[in-house]
Write a structure and sequence with these properties.
Elements: H1 2-22, H2 36-52, E1 72-96, E2 100-103, E3 106-108, E4 112-134, E5 137-142, E6 146-150, E7 154-159, E8 163-168, E9 175-179, H3 183-198
Helix pairs in contact: 2-3
Length: 199
C-alpha cells in the first residue's frame, strides 16, 4: 500500500512538471481589434479627408521643430509607446528512455531530461509622450524615447482599438503606439502615404 502511494505521488509530480514546462511558451495577447463603431468612424473620416484634404496646424501648437516645407496635421498628448522585447521566463524539458515495469499494470518511462530556456516575446511599455503626424513623418516625443519615422521608411501600419502598430524598414522589433484616438492619426498617415505614392 505504501509502495503504491509513493508511486502515485511520484507520477503526479511528473505530470505537474510536464504541465509547467508545456505552458511556458504562451504568447502575449494581441491588442483588441477595432470595433464596429471605430471602423465606421474610420470610413467616415477617410471619406471626409479624401474630399477636403488635411489642414495644417499652427506652429505654436506643435511640440517639435518642423523641417523646411514640413507641416503638422495632428498632435496627441495621451500617448504610450510599446516595443516588443524578448525575455527568458521559463524552461522546457524533453526526455526519452526505456520502459520499466514497477508493479502490475504500472510502467515508468525514465530517461535523460534536458531543459532549455524558452524565449517569450511581449509588448513592453517604454515611454509616455506625444504623437505628431506631419506631412513627412510620424514623430513620437517621449520621456525615455524619441522616434522619427519618415513615411518612405514605413512598411506597414496595423490598426487596433487602442492604437496602431508601425512596421519600419530596418527595425526588427515591433512598435505599438497606444492612444485614446487611434482613428485620426491612422487616417491621416494612410492619406499622406497614398498621396505620396501617387506623386
Amino acid at each position: 500500500m505504501k509502495q503504491n502511494l509513493r508511486i502515485g505521488v511520484f507520477l503526479i509530480g511528473i505530470v505537474a512538471l510536464v504541465s509547467a514546462c508545456g505552458n511556458g511558451n504562451k504568447t502575449p495577447k494581441a491588442p483588441p481589434p477595432m470595433t464596429i463603431v471605430e471602423t465606421s468612424r474610420l470610413e467616415e473620416l477617410t471619406q471626409k479627408v479624401e474630399k477636403e484634404g488635411l489642414k495644417p496646424l499652427s506652429k505654436g501648437d506643435v511640440p517639435i521643430f518642423l523641417k523646411k516645407g514640413e507641416e503638422a496635421y495632428f498632435v496627441a498628448s495621451d500617448v504610450e509607446l510599446f516595443e516588443e522585447k524578448a525575455t527568458r521566463k521559463s524552461t522546457r524539458g524533453e526526455g526519452v528512455g526505456l520502459s520499466i515495469r514497477l508493479i502490475k499494470g504500472v510502467s515508468l518511462h525514465p530517461g535523460l531530461f534536458q531543459s532549455h530556456p524558452v524565449i517569450e516575446r511581449e509588448m513592453t511599455k517604454v515611454a509616455d509622450g506625444k504623437l505628431v503626424v506631419t506631412s513627412k513623418r510620424i514623430v513620437f516625443v517621449g520621456t525615455e524615447r524619441n522616434i522619427s519615422a519618415d513615411y518612405k521608411k514605413i512598411l506597414g501600419v496595423t490598426p487596433y482599438a487602442t492604437g496602431f502598430e508601425v512596421e519600419r524598414e530596418g527595425k526588427k522589433a515591433r512598435e505599438l503606439i497606444k492612444t485614446s484616438d487611434p482613428v485620426t492619426p491612422l487616417v491621416y498617415v494612410t492619406y499622406i502615404i497614398n498621396h505620396q505614392a501617387d506623386e
